[in-house]
Amino acid sequence: MKHVIIDTNVLLYALDKGNMYHQQSLKLLNDPQLRLSITSKNISEYFAVCSKFNVALKDALPFYHQIRQNTNVPYPSDNSLSIFETLLQKYQPKGNQVFDL
Q: What pLDDT, in 10s, does the model give residues 54-77?
């Protein structure tokens, strides 16, 4: 099994059905032969770009939860992503206001 770290663009392409790389991104994300990982930085960037392009949080969150279930997310502590999710819901940042965890 090959270990692959996913870049933010792969997530954005998979979310955007009109993107020319949409199908390739979905194929990569759904490949059972790959062990996928994503960093907390990429997750932050995903939400920053979604908000910049006016993707509603209610639309961005389900895809994020799906990705989180199917990938390894290395992070400083077990509680880091929970804190991030709470802050995301509370402040609903726009544009580049999402910072590293």
A: 888 898 999 899 888 888 888 767
